[in-house]
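Hey, I'm writing a tutorial for new members on how sequence and structure tokens pair up, and I'd like a real worked example in the thread rather than a made-up one. If someone can provide the structure for the chain below, I'll link this post from the tutorial.
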Amino acid sequence: MKTAMLLSIFLGLTITACAPAAPDAQNETPPAPEQEADTPPPDWPMKDGRYVLNWPDLAIPDYRTEFNEEIGQEVSIPLFRDEVKRLHGQPVLIEGFYIPFEAEESGETFYILSQYPNSQCFFCGAAGPDTVMDLMMKSPPGHLKMDDRVAFKGRLRVNDSDVMFLNYILDDAEWVK
């Protein structure tokens, strides 16, 4: 059974298109959401060659429901705004609360960045799936603790197809000290 399914049962949540990455799926890249070819990235603030994101910019306005054969249940598929889709693959910088957790099944540690502290985040049922992001770290972040307010840089993946990942994934994530 995939780690994401165990986590959802443990937390009493239903799986949506925003479950943490399973260990065997971490190197698989969900495809980019459909968008117009050669669409330029959004005209958002930049710092050191990276788009500076804030969580309200990432809000997902709506979802559609479809049955997922892999997990055998209905899932919510995000309908991203066009300006968010254009961020797929772009270098970004974002601040949030650091949430590490260890998967009971594999013992592997996963890293999440959240708009809210752990006690108010998506995994506790207090916020939406657009308020968390998988951190696919270049290397472990060192001395960070749960709920440290931090910034990370990396390349954003916008995910609307793989239920084993969150809706947002930060590849090559690095802690900005």
